[in-house]
Amino acid sequence: MILPHGHDLDARTRRLLRALISQYLVDGEPVGSRTLARSSGLDVSPATIRNIMADLEDAGLVASPHTSSGRVPTPRGLRLFVDSLIELQPLPRAELARLQSELPPGPATTRDLLGNVSTLLSAMTRFAGVVTVPRQADFPLRHIDFVALPDARVLVILVFTDNQVQNRIVQLAKPLAGGELEQAANYLNSHFAGLRVDDIRAHLLAEVRETGSELNRLLASTVELATASFAPQAGDADMLVSGQTNLMACAELADLQRLRDLFDAFQQKNELLQLMEVCAKAPGVRLFIGEESGFAALDGCSVVTASYGAQGRMLGAVGVIGPTRMAYERVIPVVQATAGLLSDALNRVAVTL
Q1: Is the dihedral of CA 245, 247, 253, 254 positive or negative?
Q2: How far is CA 253 from the centre of its chain?
Q3: Which residues fall within 8 angstroms of residue 296, CB to CB, at 6 or more apart?
Q4: pLDDT at residue number 231
Q5: How far is CA 124 from CA 3, 103, 171, 352, in A?
Q6: How far, in Å, CA of 230 to CA of 236, rounded?
Q7: DSSP letter at 30?
Q8: Residue 255 gets which letter from DSSP?
Q9: 203-213 tens-digit pLDDT
């Protein structure tokens, strides 16, 4: 009936396991043999069900919290349930319309849009909603301006096509006159608007190395400013989290130390960012149940993510973090639909990626 890896189940066993997990996801209680006999619709005795449950327990798919109680699914059993025992349906049209109506209708910065998405995911699922913020360098430059500051410093104002503004302060070896700053801005805007920062940096380096290039000829005194304006920035990666306090109401996460570890992970962000960045590189939905994430703080949680992007370029991932006892058949379509709507919204603002 069950192969050593526990993935080849006969039809009756699959039906019983699906019934057990479905019941457990609803009420969170161990499911007994008599309850399974009623809910599965199978004409089998409780004794037969107990024998099958014992086999499933040996295979690591269910467990008995107490000697005389029923069974609950293990993370391995939940994985099998999600992978092969349920049929995921697209989000109903009415819910999809509700999601779409909650997104900002007008122009907004990408960060504003992402903050709205994380809040929306939390509200729709009653768990924590997470969204990674793309590097600003992933968006094309719209405009650059320079403002002279004391002590040979210059304020660099970068405006990107997602309406985000980034300010950088550059320290130069000697001060530049206002005319030189204007000349530098005009040159960079006319030659590099519409390109991403990484591409601009590559073009600048190539021009600086080329003897007699237009950049060297026109901007001999401002090459330092031009190259410094697009230098790589550390700490650009970020993640927005909403609804962390929802997890305090989950009985499965009621252990104080577990909650403390989880909230520390939300605050530090490093481990969660690593996980979400891995998810962002793969199209479609990713699911981690319990220890599958590889991070101890998430051992009692499930993480459901989906990547988003624009113009065929992956930019990040959206997701939900909640207890392993969640309604996967609802949460997965919500996350998937939200990622799709976010991608559509980014495409509508005509970001040329």
Answers
A1: positive
A2: 21
A3: 261
A4: 81
A5: 38, 13, 47, 31
A6: 13
A7: P
A8: -
A9: 888 877 776 66
Taking the C-alpha atoms of residue 257 and residue 300, their distance in angstroms, rounded to an integer, is 12
Which amino acid belongs to residue 95?
Answer: E
Closest CA to 139 of 97, 110, 172, 105: 110
CB 157 within 8 A of CB 144: yes
Backbone angles phi, psi at 83, to 5 degrees: -75, -35
CA 145/CA 155 separation, integer angstroms: 8
Half-sphere exposure of 115 (CA within 13 A, CB side): 5
pTM: predicted TM-score of the whole model, two decimal places: 0.80
Burial 101-127 (b: 16+ CB within 10 A, else e): ebbeeeebebbebbbbbbbbbbebbbb
Q: Report CA 290 to chain centroid distance, whole Å.
A: 17
How far apart CA 301 and CA 246 sit, in angstroms, is 13
Q: Whole-angstrom Cα distance, residue 150 to residue 91?
A: 57
| Residue 37 and residue 20 in contact, taking contact as beta carbons nearer than 8 Å | no
> Using one digit for the tens of pLDDT, what is the confidence trace for 88-124?
888 888 888 888 888 877 667 788 889 899 999 999 9
- Report how far residue 73's alpha carbon sits from residue 21's, in angstroms, rounded to the nearest whole number: 6
- Indicate the residue type of 186: N
**Residue ranges in 28-89 assigned as alpha helix (H):** 33-40, 46-58, 75-80
E strand or H helix at 19:
helix 11-27
Instruction: Name the residue with tokens 């001060």.
Output: 175
The C-alpha atoms of residue 40 and residue 17 are separated, in whole angstroms, by 9
